[in-house]
Every structure is written in structure tokens, then in C-alpha cells.
Write a structure and sequence with these properties.
By secondary structure, the chain is an alpha/beta fold. The chain contains twelve helices and ten strands. Helix 2 packs parallel to helix 5, helix 6 packs across helix 7 and helix 6 crosses helix 12.
């Protein structure tokens, strides 16, 4: 068995896709087990190649893997807690970054400034496994009952510092609607009030608020079939990258060099107010709030121009 730890969220799983596929290719005859939150199951299926999900939420405990572990792979963090959690399964080998605190001298050194996708590919290359950081595409789910061709605005984030002000999303929604976009608002159950506020200020109908009304599989289908996605640096942005859905992502406080879409994917634009060292800890970080509505609209026009050019070439 190859046991992989990545007990985090949607964006974290999406950025680990190249590493997971590299492990699948390196061990085609082994069972590949992913230790990750159970609610990520629909997205794990869209990654492909994972044989089984071992429900794991954080680093408090790891359930019995269900058999001997040949290789344990730490795609979760730098250690020591994640290293020790995997070492507790008794693997023949542990692929992880070097960490003396966990008595793990093997592996490459950690680089804080490295892009999240490149980080895990580099880890595997250290152990002789080729990994392609551009291999980010996700399987396309059936649209089912979700609308297609819509413009998705995602005003929420579990990290308050990453949130662009709701009033700006409302202003953006008005402008996009006037330009012919059918705007919908997504988010979790706890973000439904924010989405409703944006819809009310933008004059959108009540059925435009999809926050709290889609599960992860439906959200993936919505993004896969969308005309455009606008969000902060959160899971929805990574879904847009995985489906090559045109997107505009407002970054902060973490710079796009660490979590942004790869530059070769021309249908995505990132906006970042730059390095801002101070924050009051409430609401959006200054790097986020420095981005204005006009800048987002200009970025939308850029990505839509790329889409038109791509279609002209394809024709």
C-alpha cells in the first residue's frame, strides 16, 4: 500500500493532483490510499487514480490504514507532527521533507517561498519519482441539475483576510449582469448570508444565491461548466484552474507566486495589491482590499479576450 497524507481542503487537494498522479504512475500495481477529510470524497473521485480514501481531518489521529504500508508519503506539511503521524503506521519508507525534530534526516529541505504545486513535485523527484507540475486537469463531472454557462462569484473564504469586500462583489455583479453575464453566488452554508447580501445589493434574483445549496460535487460541476469564476485565493479558484475555466483571482495576503494558477494557463488572471506588512486582523487584508472593481473588470475582459482568440483558432 502507498499511503498519502493530505488532510486539508479543496485547494490543497487540487494543488496536490500532479504529485498524486505521479505516485499512481510510479506504483501502478499498489493500492493508493489518500488520508484526507471524508467530505472531499467527490473531488477525490475527480482527481482519479486514488483507490481508497482514509477519512482523516487534521493531524489529531490517523485511522488504521487497513494493511501494511510500503511507502508513506507526506504531502501535508514539513513536519514534525505529520511526519510522526505517518511514521506511526510503520511504513517501510517515508517520503517527506527533512525534519530533525521528527528524526527524519532524509528528504529535501523545505522552501517557504516555493509554489505549492512545485513543492510536492520536487519532494517526489528527490525520491526518484518524476512529477509534472502542469498535470492539474480534473475529470469533468456531469452537470446534473446545476446551471451551465454562468458567471460564478465566490465572495467567501474560511480565512477572513482573503475576503474581498461584499460591496465590491455587489458592484462587480451589477456590471457583469449589465454586460450580459448570468451571475450566481457560491459559498458554504456559513457564507449564505454574505452571498444573499451581495445578491440584494446587486439586484440579483433570489435563485442566484447558490451558497449553502451545493455539495462539493455540484460545486465542481458548476465551475467546470461556468463561463467565468471570480473569487479570492480559495478552493473555487483551484477548481477553475483544474477545469481551465476562465477566472480572475484576487490574492492576499499570500502572494500568487505561492498559490496562483500556472502562467501557461492563459485563461486565468491574478490580482494582488502587493506586499502589505500590516493588517488589523479584521476583514480583508490590505493586499486584497487594494484591488478595485475596475481592475477586476479589466481582468475579466482580458480572459474573455483570450477565450475568444482560442475559439477563433479552434474554428
Amino acid at each position: 500500500m502507498i499511503l498519502v497524507l493530505r488532510a486539508l481542503g479543496v485547494g490543497d487537494l487540487a494543488t496536490a493532483v500532479p504529485a498524486l498522479r505521479a505516485l499512481r504512475a510510479a506504483y501502478p500495481d499498489r493500492e493508493l490510499v489518500l488520508a484526507a477529510p471524508d467530505w472531499l470524497g467527490p473531488l477525490v473521485e475527480l482527481v482519479g487514480g486514488v483507490d481508497r480514501l482514509l477519512p482523516t481531518d487534521g493531524l489529531d489521529r490517523l485511522g488504521a490504514p487497513g494493511g501494511p504500508v510500503e511507502v508513506a508519503v507526506n504531502l501535508h506539511g514539513r513536519g514534525p507532527r505529520s511526519h510522526r503521524l505517518l511514521a506511526g503506521t510503520g511504513p517501510d519508507r517515508l517520503f517527506a521533507f527533512a525534519d530533525a525534530r521528527a528524526a527524519h534526516a532524509d528528504g529535501p529541505g523545505w522552501d517557504d517561498a516555493e509554489h505549492e504545486v512545485a513543492r510536492w513535485c520536487r519532494l517526489l523527484r528527490w525520491y526518484g519519482i518524476a512529477a509534472d507540475p502542469t498535470d492539474l486537469d480534473l475529470r469533468r463531472p456531469s452537470p446534473g441539475t446545476v446551471p451551465t454557462g454562468v458567471t460564478v462569484l465566490h465572495p467567501g473564504s474560511k480565512v477572513p483576510a482573503k475576503r474581498w469586500p461584499p460591496g465590491r462583489y455587489a458592484a462587480l455583479a451589477r456590471e457583469l449582469t449589465d454586460a450580459g453575464h448570468r451571475v450566481v453566488l457560491t459559498g458554504g452554508t456559513g457564507e449564505r448570508a454574505t452571498a444573499a447580501r451581495v445578491a440584494d445589493e446587486a439586484g440579483l434574483p433570489g435563485d442566484a444565491v447558490l451558497a449553502g445549496r451545493t455539495d462539493l460535487g455540484q460545486l465542481a460541476a458548476l465551475v467546470a461548466g461556468a463561463r467565468l469564476v471570480v473569487s479570492g485565493d480559495t478552493g473555487v479558484a483551484h477548481l477553475a484552474t483544474g477545469y481551465r475555466t476562465p477566472s480572475v483571482v484576487i490574492f492576499g495576503p499570500v502572494p500568487p507566486a505561492r498559490w496562483g494558477p500556472p502562467p501557461e494557463r492563459r485563461r486565468h488572471r491574478v490580482l494582488w495589491g502587493g506586499a502589505c506588512p500590516t493588517s488589523d486582523g479584521v476583514g480583508g487584508h490590505p493586499a486584497v482590499t487594494a484591488v478595485g472593481v475596475d481592475a477586476v473588470l479589466a481582468a475579466v475582459e482580458e480572459v474573455e479576450r483570450v477565450v475568444r482568440a482560442d475559439r477563433a483558432v479552434a474554428a
